[in-house]
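TA notes, week 10

Several of you asked for a full example with nothing omitted. So below is the full record: structure tokens for the whole chain, then the designed sequence directly under it. When grading your own attempts, check the secondary structure regions first.
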């Protein structure tokens, strides 16, 4: 009887371990990701969940808003910021496991919808002319008060000497994803958006895009970080994003990868 009881206890222990692992995998890890990552991270997360069984809950928004929410106790596990300064500030506040890791550098460009009176001109010369001849009534960027891509759009417009003329015509998106929707909806003549969104097939078919010179604005140095107490799934996804397979997906969406 003793061998049978021993085997029975081993089976129960194995079953308990299996159920525990299943429960751990069933617990979703929350990823707060900058909106420029929407298409790339959705693709990566779907494959990651399929391969590992870990569940991810993706939330997209502006990095500045996520920063404020984390300080107020929002239960995020992994923060993927479009501006590394927000990560450093959270680390200094003691909210993160460490100071994180660079995962990409973003780019901005001008996106004009099909049929727009504007041309997709990366040096914004046609935009400058359009502001003079009245072809531009509304122009979209992300809100530069809290969205890094909006901050860089403002810097590029200032570099081109267009900020004062275009500011009264701006339509501000809450984040770069919403600004991209405004830029392609036909309600504006265009906008300055993230290359990673403009390259997505669902967006690319709606308009024309041209990169703005990177020297016209501060770099979009993007950093991610795990929050203290992040579960196994979040930690595994954080590590997965550094793999060659994940980086290939990021590169396909126009991100420049850290050396």
């Amino acid at each position: 009887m003793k061998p049978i009881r021993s085997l029975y206890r081993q089976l129960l222990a194995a079953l308990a371990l299996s159920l525990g692992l299943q429960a751990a995998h069933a617990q979703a890890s929350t990823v707060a990701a900058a909106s420029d990552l929407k298409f790339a991270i959705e693709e990566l997360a779907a494959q990651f969940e399929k391969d590992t069984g870990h569940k991810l809950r993706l939330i997209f928004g502006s990095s500045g808003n996520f920063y404020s929410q984390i300080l107020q106790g929002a239960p995020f596990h992994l923060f993927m910021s479009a501006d590394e300064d927000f990560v450093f500030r959270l680390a200094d506040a003691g909210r993160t496991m460490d100071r994180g890791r660079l995962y990409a550098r973003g780019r901005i460009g001008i996106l004009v919808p099909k049929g727009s009176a504007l041309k997709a001109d990366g040096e914004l010369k046609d935009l400058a002319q359009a502001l003079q001849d009245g072809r531009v009534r509304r122009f979209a960027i992300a809100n530069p008060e809290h969205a890094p891509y909006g901050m860089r759009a403002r810097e590029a417009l200032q570099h081109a000497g267009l900020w004062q003329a275009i500011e009264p015509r701006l339509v501000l998106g809450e984040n770069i994803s919403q600004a991209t929707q405004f830029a392609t909806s036909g309600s504006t003549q265009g906008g300055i958006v993230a290359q990673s969104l403009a390259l997505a097939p669902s967006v690319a078919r709606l308009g024309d895009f041209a990169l703005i010179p990177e020297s016209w604005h501060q770099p979009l140095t993007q950093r991610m970080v795990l929050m203290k107490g992040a579960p196994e799934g979040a930690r595994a996804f954080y590590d997965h994003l550094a793999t060659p397979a994940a980086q290939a997906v990021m590169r396909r969406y126009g991100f420049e990868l850290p050396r």
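The longest strand covers residues 220-226. Use that as a sanity check on your answer.
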